[in-house]
Every structure is written in C-alpha cells, then in structure tokens.
Amino acid sequence: MTTGPTESARLPPPGLPGLDPAWSRLIEVPSGTASHTFHVLDTMPGGGAELTVLCVHGNPSWSYLWRNLLAALPDGVRGIAIDHLDMGFSERTGTVRRLGQRIDDLCDLTEALGLDGPVVTVAHDWGGPISLGWAQRNLQTLKGVVLTNTSVHQPEGAHAPRVIRAARTRGALRRATVDTTAFITGAFEMSHPRTPKPIRQGFLAPYKTPERRHAIQVFVEDIPLEDDHPTGPVLDGVADGLQHLADVPTLMLWGSKDLVFSDLYLHDLEARLPHAAVHRWAHAGHFVAEDAPVASVVVDWIGSLDDTPVVDLHGAPESSRLFEHMDRPELVDTTAIREMTGRSITFGELTRRVDAAAAGLASIGVAPGDRVAVMIPPGVDLATTVYACWRRGAVAVLVDGALSPKQMSAALKAAYPAHLIGIPKALAAARALRWPGQRISAVPLTPRQQRLFGAEHDLESITAGPATTTDAALPDADAEAAVVFTSGSTGPSKGVRYTHRQIAAQRDALIELYDITSADRLVAAFAPFALYGPAMGIMSVVPDMDVSAPASIDSTTLAQAVDAVDATIVFASPAALESLVRTEGEIEDRHREALGRVRVLLSAGAPVRASLLRSAQVVFPNAIAHTPYGMTEVLPVASISLPELDEVGNGAGVCVGHPTAGVDVSIRLLDAEGLDHAAPGYTISPNMFGEIVVRAPHARLAYDRLWHTTYLASQPLGWHATGDVGHLDDEGKLWIAGRVAHVVWTESGPIGPVGLEKSVEALEGIYAAAVVGVGPVGIQQVVVVVQRDDPNKRAALAPLERIDEVRALSEIDVVAVFEVPHLPVDRRHNSKINRTRVAEWAEVALGGGTLGSL
Is the pTM of this model over 0.85? Predict the structure, then answer.
C-alpha cells in the first residue's frame, strides 16, 4: 500500500438530492498525538436523544448512503452517519488505515461526540466489521445491531467474490479505484432497479478527482484474501467476538443480487448470529438501501425493540406431537396410504419406514434443525420423507409443484436448504438451476444417473438400515418443523414457517371441525392436504392426477379414487370441482355407490360459489358440502356448509361462516393513503369493512427471512393480517370481499370486488368475472371484465344489453364492461383471478389500446 494525498475536511456541496445540509458537521477528533477532522451527518447535534442510530458506510460510498434512514427516524431518535477518514468529505490524512485503525477511529469519534447510549449501529459493506468491532468494545451502550450486505469471514470452501478478485489483479486495481470512477459506478450496475442519475451523482460527489479516491483502493487492498494478510487476525477477532452479541437484538437486511456479498455471506452471518432477524430482498443489489425500503424497515425494527414477546400460545396444547394419531397401536394393520398404482402401506409399516428413514437421514449428515427440501409427488414416499424429517428434527421445506421454475428457484434460494430429496425430474432441475443442498434421490439411481444428478444417496438405500430413532428423540413441540411456500397467486411466493405444535394444532382443528374419526377415509385431490390423512390417523389416497394442476382431474379419475378406499371425505379445489361437474356424465355406474357413501365434501383455495357446490352434490348425493376459509399461513379460519350458504343468500362478498373453535377474527380499518400500512384500528363491530386479522393456535410462526413482512402482518402481536378484506355480519359470520391490494378506491369509499363479481357471475352466459379499479386511488372507476361460457370469441367491449345487466346489479357506477375468452388464474388452485393483471389490461383497454389476450 502507498500513502495518499492530504486534504482538509469540508462540507458537502449544496443541492445533493435527499441530503439536508443542516445535518452536516465537521468534528475534530483527537487520535493519539494528532487529531483528525471527520465529516458526519447528525440529526440532533444538541443531544438529548432517547436513542442514537450510528450509521457506518463501507466502500465505495459515504454517509450519503444513510440519508433516507436519517430522514425517516422518529422524534427523539438521533441519527449519526459518519464519513470514514479519507472517505466522503472527511479529512484526507495521507495515511494507510486498516481495519483495526478504522475501529479505533470510530471509537475516538463516538467519544468525541459524547455518545453514552443507548446506541443502535447500522452498517454496510466494510462498515460491517468496523461497526461490529465498535459494538464489541461498547456493549454497555449497545441497544441493537443492523447489518446490510457485509461480511466478517470468507466462508470455507468458497472463493472470494469475482468482482473483488478481478479488482485485485495486477494493474487493474488503481485503474478501477483511483484513476477512474469505475469501482463506484460499477457498484450501481448491481442495483435493481437502476439508481436514478441524480442519486448516482450524489454518491460521486466526494470522489471527483483521483486524489480524493485513494482510500477506495486502500479499502479493497485491506480485504484479507491472503493467509498472511495483516488484517486477517483483526477480522478473525471481530468474527470470534460475535459470540458477545448473542443477547443483542440484531437485524440483517440483504439484497440477494449483490455480486460481492451474496447470500453465501448472509448464511455465514446467520450461523454466527442465529438469533438475528432477517429480511432478504430477492431483487436488491449491493446498495440495498437504494434498492429496497431499508429505512422504513429499520425504523419499524427499532420501534419493536421494546415490544413484549408473545408467549400466550392461545390455547395450543402443551405437548402436541405430530405422530400421536399415526402411531396408535390399534392402527398397525390398517392401510395408511394407498396409491392408485396399487401400492399401499399400513400405519405400522409407515411408522417403521419413517423411523428407518430418519435413522438413514442421520447417517448421511442430516442434523436436527437442518432444512430439507422435499420435492416428491403425494404418496407413500412423500409421507415417509416428510415424517422422517420431523422424526429427525429436520425442517421440511415444501415447495409447491405448481410454481414455475423461476418461482421454484427463488423459493429454494430463499429457504437455502442443506439437503434436497426429490424425484429424478427435481434432481435434474436442481443440477441445471443450481439449487442448494445435498441431493438425495427419492428412488434408486444407476451410477450414471448418480453422477448426472450429483446425488450420492437415495431414499430406499438409506431406509434399508435399522430404525434407531425413538420417541425420546422427537423434537420439542416448539421446534421449527416446516417451511411451506405460498402459491404466489397474490404476490411473490413466500416461505411460511411452522412449528411442530402449530402443525399439530392445525391437524386437530380439522379433526374437530369435521368430526373426523379413524373410520374416515380421505381422497385428497388438493396437494397441500395429501399429508394430512396419516397425521389424522385415517386412510388416504391421491387421485391419479397432476396435483400441481387441480383442474386436470375429471370425474372418472376422482370416482376411481373414491371407490379405491371407499372414501368418506373428499377434498378438492374449486377448479377440480368444476372439472368434475363438467364430466359428471362419464362416471361409471359401478363407482356411483361409493360416491354415495362420501359424507363430507370439502373445497377451498379460492371463493367457492354455492351453485358449484350444488352441482357437485349431484355427484356426492349424501355428502354435506363445506368450504373452509383459510390460507397457507392459517387454515382453517372459518367454515360454512352449503345449507348455510343457501340460508345467508347474497351479500357484500362471499360468506365463509363463523370462525372455527379457537380462532379469533377482527377487522383492521383500511387507509387509502397507505395500503401497506393499514390504520391501527381494530373492531368486532358488525358490518365494519376492512382487512381481516385472525389469531389461532394453528397460525404460522413467521415468514421466512422476511422479518418486515412478518412484522407488518403481525399487528398487534400474536395476530395475522390475512390480506383479505371483508366484514363480520350481525350474527358473527365472516364475509370475504377480496384482497387488500384489489380494493377499488372510489369517491364513495373502498369497495371489495367479490360481492359484485358473484352477482355478475349469476347472469346467464357468464362463467367468471373480475371487478377492478382504474385510475388514481380515491377516484378510481369500476370496470367489470367477464369470461363468457363460450371461450372462443375475442376480447371485446360487452354488448349494451350486457352492460345494462351489470350496471343494474351495482349501486356504484360501472364505467365499462368487457368480455374476454379467459381470465388469468393462479397456477396452484386454477381458481384465483389475477385482478392486478386484469386491472392493467382494463386500463389499456379504456385508453383505446388493443384488446389483446389476458
């Protein structure tokens, strides 16, 4: 390293976007026998703060990185963002300052500022180890730690980031960092979306000349890539010192598209700080504070530091076990799972197989707490694998097969499983798409296939060993059991974390709600329910269908499955019921007697029309049709039978019945100014419209690596905000009117789309309808887009007669009615209409654009 030029500290030029010039201060700080002048941003230079947020930038940035956070801090919270010496607008000292010196500098600066706590540190990039070094020396004043895209260690077996290795090559470093601004501008090339030019100019403001960029090179040179690098021991000391932060609240905010600090470094820090909360943005790059709403997340997290943790389990059983029904002695010789291929397994055989598989997983390195992605179709192998993970104490990661390859990749990269068990198709995708985890085949492979897929083990081989797992080895009821991904039909697919206790409580809620006994037998024509049969201690079968495409089933396929197990309960999505009704005439007489013995017909996943349930009862003449309401995060919330639906009639949405036992439902008032932050009011007043919030012992633990999403969906603590809107009627029954994001904000107030949609769908010749809003919030216009029974015609403005019919159904003006061949629906249920896409299409159509397909 070479020394650089010297230059006095100075204030930033005026007019930098987002930077309040009143924040800038020059602070002279004694350092040994000399002193140096720092430039800092300080929102409360007079002191008197209840809390100080100390922001530390990395390379190649300056305190400008934290301008949005400083502006967002609430009253009473002081924000300080420093410029390191030789960086930003601080003094150019002409010296080489390595990590250890940088930590000393920060300690000297905070002493000069008179910080005496409490303090929350916030850091990025190389500012991470600097701030962590400071934190370890100032534990007595430390309130919390926030880290964004940083590192304290090069993970074992991993190469240093390619960007850094390229910059460190001979002759390239000075050109990239000093002679040009390439290192700075290159960092913004990792931004998603692209950072606006005025902001990029703000970051470049202190680095206009080569003389002012010398420290950018020094920072890169100080990264200890070599074993004998002088900074190596200092960085190791910071990493080792993280053990002292075990009781310090910690938040990690991560942009996963960072080509420098990738998810690899996030997972390393998670292992070192396992108590940390994490929020990961799949789209954000290196400057995560520019690409994602870091400021609002930090503010909410700071505000939550004094929250009292929710310890009331709201009626959850103290010692729930997932296996208590499956392991009952009287079921040993009873069939647990039957596949339509003819394969079946008894409960006794399933228990032995699960124990053996759990022991086999242990033998190949699956440890308690490890995440195991399971990508196997419903049946014996899926049940064996998931239950074996739970016996072992591992966490089953369940990714819906209906997700697109891109969505699957995003889900698995977010969950980051240590192991992946799948069929060959899944293993091939894992190899091609570089999914994480040790690969284990669900079926035996040839040596060539093992090499091709990179799978050294298969489920059958590892299950052939002795079953050594005992009940004493079962994990604690509050240990994490599963990460289940949402369908992605109403937003990006999210991982939902569940404990053993919560899954057992969900099973128990279903048993109680539908009076399920060991005499029942289940047909699960809906993938998420394929695992529930064995857990409830009842025989189950999955029809010979593509469970990732519920609408693919026909009446013959379903009837065969019902007959195969003499089913008493059938669970099918609305799309599956639609297909069943369409092909009802194809059912063979020999199956109709079995269909007549079904006592409960369940359909969920999207609002279910009473007319559809009535049509389905022709197939199941002695069954009572029910539609449970819930979501991946909590199911069931409520349930209603067809007779009850007929009794309540039409209303402002779809009635889903009374909340089930143990479930509390309330309403959160909506605020048109910020749909993501609903107003804090809660009510159980009849007919109050707003977001539905629920509390139940079987509700999710949290969203995976999405701290802020969990926080926003958990207000007040212990509740879950569903994202659905509706109301409770005079009798306490719950009505669903749509999604928060699909509310139409008219001059007359907010409108949920579902009520009008159901009325329109009752008109002759209409298969489905979508009600959307077009225009600015507060003055949106209502547009209705309908799918005709005849799907062969092109999209067009509806005839005047149809428009008049629709307008007669609504008290709110409908500005336009369009007819389309098909409405876009979700991949999992084939039932949820993508109203966001419809609204975008309708806006183009109203503007005179081409009426293309949806």
Answer: yes
